[in-house]
Each structure stands twice: as structure tokens, then as C-alpha cells.
Amino acid sequence: MLLNRRIVVGICGGIASYKAVDLVSKLQQTGALVDVILTKHAEDFVRPLTFAAVSHRPAYTDLWEASGQAAEMHIVLAEEAEVLAIVPATANTLAKLAHGIADNMLTAVALATQAPLVLAPAMYRDMYTHPATRANLALLRERGAHIVEPEVGRLASGAIGPGRLPETAVLLGAISQALGRNGDLAGRKVVVTAGGTREPIDPVRYVGNRSSGKMGFALATEARDRGAQVVLISGPVALDAPYGVELHAVETALEMRDAVRGATLDADVLIMSAAVADFRPAAPAAHKLKKEGRAEQGIAFDAQGGFTLHLVRNPDILGELAAAEDSGESLGDEGKRQKRLVRVGFAAETSDLVSYAQGKLAAKRLDLLVGNDVSRSDSGFGAETNKVLIFHAAGGMEDLPLMPKQDVAAAIWDRIVPLLR
Fold first, then answer.
1. Looking at 44-58, 87-101, 151-165, 208-222, which range is the least confident one?
2. Whole-angstrom Cα distance, residue 395 to residue 361?
3. CATH fold of 6-179, please?
């Protein structure tokens, strides 16, 4: 997504400017072409040479240097930039941007560029909450600037409150989202499910699976970077929510079904990559089960201290959606679906992948089905890579090579986009 993209990063004079070094380094590592502009006071915190070293490109500072090259270059940067990200954005620079003041190289580029503006404010909490700063941010947001809200935490002064610069991953997400605003999913709403579900046995124990959620999170991130409005419905995972994605956290299959019902009523695409439990305990115990073997409803203990757990089937979420769409009925109280939903399923198998996947594709009347053999160490739960087969409702199967999950996500969306046309 960021390979060969032209990104200008503006650095303002605040203590958080040292964090921008990591951002520029990470952008360069993705293959982006990064130009850095520092304000005069930013140089008091981090030297231009530092940014030149990590970006592998010159860092710009003084608009008024004697040769006149910087004055010429600010127009080149403004015209070639695909996004201008100001990290950190101080109260002083925000005020200048809001009122069209162009008295240094950074603000001159900002006034001259047509690229989207990403602003990451970072400052002392009372400066951030001051009515003047809030008004300037509101004006900039109204003009289309993308504001990355600061985090709440301990500030350089020792005070606690809003004003901390977000971590690099958040800033990268904001820049990627801005770059993808006109992508091939712009104006589309997509719903992605991820992770596994947990079906309670008692308040402590549950029936679950090994799904990490990485594939679903990669799919959600890729859709965001193509301009989509993304709803991510996830079971319990150890992953941070992608920036700019609406996350709905659920635990059980029934909770996931309800969340999917509501989210898909006005959606264009549903990708069910979650590993939803097929069964759940019929009657979870109200209290923690004891080894002594006290009887509970739905749980039978034997003479050796073991117990038999009675399981019942969970609903088939994709099957219910297909049936409801065929009948023209709604699955919820919010109203009937207004447009056809492109449905994509996953089949995680340990044997007979092709036959099981083809059967699931037909039985649930899916547009696409992505199958993978989770018994493979390089393609199973928790792996960073995936080896998938893609089955098409129109017929045919594609055998994709082993790839990082983010690349697999891109390949899947490449096949969904034509279905939306």
C-alpha cells in the first residue's frame, strides 16, 4: 500500500518530535518516498541529519535560505505529495494552518498542496483543551483534515491527560487510510469477522479454538486502505484494533451472529473469516465446576470424577444470511437489507480441503470461499503467512502461493471488487 507513495512528514517543535523519527523510518522501510520538513523549533529537539539518515532523502528546514532552492522546492513538494502528515502538530502550527498563515516551509507547503492533510496533535493537556486549539481543530476538520486524536496518559511535564502522540502503528494507519480514500472500495461498507469464539462451560472455563484473528485483521486493514468503511467483528484476540476500523468485540457464536445481523443490513460485503464454534455447552454452569463432582444442569459427573458435557449446535451464520436473502426477509428488527450482500466464507480444514470447501461454497451459496489447511505449520492458526485456495461460485479454483497474510488479504479483495461492479 505504501510502496513508492510520496509522503511529506512535517515535524513541529515539541518534545514528541523524537517519536517521529520512528515513523519516518517505518515509512521508509515500507518503500514509501518520504520527505521531511522541520520547523525552526523542531530543530531544537531533533537535528535534520537524523531524519535524512532514516529517510535516505534530504530533510528541509529554512524556506528563506540564500540559494532560493528551498523556496522553489516547497512548490515541488506540495505538488508531488500524496499526503502531508504533520507529526507532532503543535498548537502554534495548528493555529497557522487554520488561518492560512504560511511563514515557514512547512506551512507554505501545507497551504500550497492539494494532498490530504493528516494532523497528529501533541502538546500539554491544557493547551490541547484550550478553546482556541479546539476551535482551530474543528475548523481544520471541517475543511477535510484528518485529525489523529492524541492519547491520554503521562505527559513530558508529568501531568496526566490528553496530549500524548499516538504510537507509530496508529500514525501509519492514519496515513494509509488517507492514501486510500479514493481506492476501489471507496463508498462501500464492508463487514469482516475475525478470531475464534469462546463458548462458556462455567464462569471460568470455555470451549474454544486456536484462531489468532490475524487473517481477519489483515482483511479489515486492507479494506480500510482501499477506502472502505470497515466494521470488524472479532472474538477474543491478542491484537490491537486497526486504526480507523469500527471494532465490535464479541465472545460467543450467538453474540457474533447478532453483531453480524445488525452490521450487514446496509453493507456491501461480508467476509466471515472468524472460526465460529460449531457447538456450545447446552447449559453452562452458574458456578465454577469443582473436582469433587457436584452435579450441575447439563453436566453429568461419573464415578471417576470426570464429567460429560452436553453440546448443542450453534447457528450457521452464513447459512441463515443466505436463507434470509433468498426469502427477502430481514434477520433483525432494524429493517430489510437494501442491497445484495457479497458473501465470502472461509474453510479451515486439516484434510480433504477441496471437497469440504466446494461443499461449503455450494451449501451456503457463497460468492467466494477461501480454504486453507490449518495443519500446516506455515499456514495454520497464529502463523504470519497463509497458503490458500480460492473457490469461485461461478466455477474454478485458484491455488495461491504461500504469502504473508496481508498479501493474501489483498489478493482476496482483488477478487471481491469485480463482484461489486
1. 151-165
2. 10
3. Rossmann fold (3.40.50)
Which residue numbers are catalytic?
Answer: 209
- Give the whole-angstrom CA distance, residue 21 versus residue 47: 10
CB burial of residue 1 (10 Å; 0-12, 13-18, 19+) = buried
CA distances from residue 243 to 4, 170, 176 in whole angstroms, order as listed: 22, 6, 10
The identity of residue 277, as a single letter, is A
Instruction: Check pLDDT > 80 for residue 329.
Output: no
What's the grid cell of residue 78? 506540495
What is the pTM (predicted TM-score) of this model?
0.90
Taken as a whole, the chain contains a residue count of 421
147 CB-contact burial (10 Å; exposed 0-12 / middle 13-18 / buried 19+): middle
Give the pLDDT score at 379: 82
Q: At 38, which helix (H) or strand (E)?
A: strand 33-38
Alpha carbons within 13 angstroms on the beta-carbon side of residue 114 total 2
Other C-beta atoms within 10 Å of 334: how many? 11
Superfamily name with CATH number, domain 189-278+314-420: CoaB-like (3.40.50.10300)
